Model the fold of this input.
Amino acid sequence: MPVQALFVRSPPHALTFGQAIREHNANISGPPQAMSAPPIPAPLDRPALISALRARIARMERAGAAEALAARGEDAVPLTQAIDSALPWGGLPRAALHEILAAEPGAAAGFAALVLARAGGTVLWIAPEPDAWPPGLARFGLSPARLVLVRAPREQDALWAMEETLRCPAVGAALLVAGELDLTAARRLQLAAEAGGVLGLLLRPDEDSAAPTAALTRWRIGAAPTESQSPHEIGDPAWNLELLRCRGGRPASWRAAWHADGLVTEDGAARATPARRRA
Amino acid sequence: MRQRCCRPPRMGMPPGGQPPEPPAGRQKPPGPSIPLGRGEGGAWHALPEGHAHTPLPLLAPLIAGSGEAAASPARVQGAAPPGRAPQPQRRTLAILLPRFHVERLRLPGPVAVWAQRGPRRLVLAVNAEAEAEGLEAGQALADAQAILPEVMLVPGDPAGDAAALERLALWALRFTPLVGKVGEDGLVLDITGVEHLFGGEVALREEVLTRLARMGLSAVGAVASTAGTAVALVRAGWSGVVPSGQEAATIAPLSLAALHLEPALTAILQGLGLRDVGSVDAQPRPALVRRFGTGLARALDEALGRASRPITPIRPPPEMAVARDFADPVVTREGIEAALAGLLEDLCRALREAGRGARRMLLRAHRADGDVQEIAIGTGLATREPKHLARLFHEKLECLAPDCGFERITLEAARTDPLTGVQDGLGTAGHTARREELAQLLDRLSQRLAVWRLAPRPSHWPERAARRVGAFEEVEEPEGWATRPRPVRLLRRPLYISAVALLPDAPPSLLRIGRETLRVVHAEGPERFEPEWWRDRPDRKLRDYYRVELASGARLWVCRVGLAEPGEAARWVLHGHLP
Done:
């Protein structure tokens, strides 16, 4: 779908950015005809100007979410220090949809459980056949007392359930296990999440044909080989976290391990390698 | 008679646990409730003197027979001092449809319904046209065909008859909330306290019969003080209204058909010269019982009003109900939604005044052609918010088929719970509001989809570690779950795989899943799970679970079923994905 892809990639940024620059320039210099003295060229602090404009665009883009977030009074969901600093929001933001491509089902489910647990409150797991198992999820802090499972065999039911859930401010986070998802559906979910201030996760199989979606971030979660040397020990869970797409941020990847009730990023620094393929 | 209105007693009360309220008198304001005792064996008669019972909040649940449904709180206590309620005077309308099996088919011309009885084919029922030609029930089919060759013959359909009677009983709920079926072709309606809505007992009986006639059903109706008497009257073909206290006198000269006895017993009684109810009753009771058994005595007592005959209602009487009638049948979805909104508002107002919230609601739509359709919704927490309830109903309104339009729509709160201390329209602040919002979300989801929580169970067997409970139940996390390495996803259908191990009881070194062959790099285990002998089937085998990591880094939870036996290939199963 070339038309859709084009539409998603360029226009919102380009348009708003251009408008904002023009507006900003007008504000700095003021109306020229009203000034009697020759205009003094404003000192041009380029980096500061650009960062101010970026912040402004960010505010304009998620105007709906700001309200919901203010009502909730909760911060972004923290992961690790290294990842949080790479994300423009200082963590995974609420009132947004995040897409997780599961390169390995166990690792992706573990990462999703971690995010759901840290989002707090009641979380919903919506799937055609929910196979989440609380004894394993409890390790990441997701208690069965907070988990509600919804079985939605038909895709339209699943999307409806996810949208209703994302619009409900009483929910902490929601996860939808989905296959293909078209742009309109994802956009609807994103708007619903902005309305309710709920963190939405979209767990999808890792396919090459994964079309761009309206989600704020896209991750690919795979399993990382353990560092254990013994063949009789598998050690801590280790994952390859690839941030493929991030609005307002750069793609990056980390190797993270679940060690002693906490997520630990290896080397403490992001390997800012470009993603294997553009997504 | 003093007037008092109340909600009908709640379901689940022990018989006689809550004495019924006295019926409403003639001058009751519009919109009364119908007091109904639903105990066993005439519990509604039993109201001990001085029984210290506090009347429940008085409400206006049923607004029947009026075009404009104006709910007025019918708190008409008057001068009635509490604690000394009078004996309720119940009135019952019995309807018998002698030709129901034929007339429900709505076929033109002479029609006869027949059935095989042993080696014979007998006519079960005939319609009026066929009867005029000389056909009658009980005739041999060949005789009937010889008398009237053009008669249309329809084989009997007992299941269809029962379903049709059930539908008719649902239709009769428009007159009173307590309707029961009698035999295969009769209905009994408890009309205590509703007759004034139709202009008196006579007018109510007329209305019921007229409406039945409009549906093409010929019927006999009688009103009496007890259900047994009313049924006996219509069985004998007597039609009309018996004033209270004159039941015995009315029924005495009627034929033995009123008692609905076995044909053989009727024949014996007639052979003895006992041709009417009164003469049977005049016989000395001990001799009668000794000779004919207690069945006859019981039938006599019921018919004469000495023994009570409980009505088994087709639907439990609702705790509250509102209804609207429409002069023009409602056909469009917009019309139905508008009607529903009005009804919900009325019912929620009544609930608020009672300090209760609905847990189960039932929308019943009466179609103009006599068909009745029902939609039920349930909520996890008691609620009386019209907007939320309307959303729940909207999901299901498409189940309705308003062919020729609905002429009456009833909304019932079938089950309610106490709900107090909630201020309406308080906004979405605070913990209670959050809980309410979550409950509403779960309600909406569970109208369409399966929603549940997983509660821990004291079992180490993986499939039994968690069980499904309702979305509104409290669940606690057991100790020790967080420390064990367990899969995050447990396959609902475990996958049979094959594996290669160096020794029969060694960890696997190679897994074959489908067509893929995967090398195992690390393997932890075994962790042995013994079957739970106290609840398992005896041949359940133990399992040795291994946590394995493949060369790709993927981690799996695989197990070997049973002990390794010489000469037998081990069975391996993939049971879950480890994080």
Remarks:
- DSSP finds 14 helices and 20 strands in chain B.
- Chain B has five domains: 1-53+71-77, 90-226, 247-303, 320-448, 485-577.
- The first strand of chain B starts at residue 92 and ends at 96.
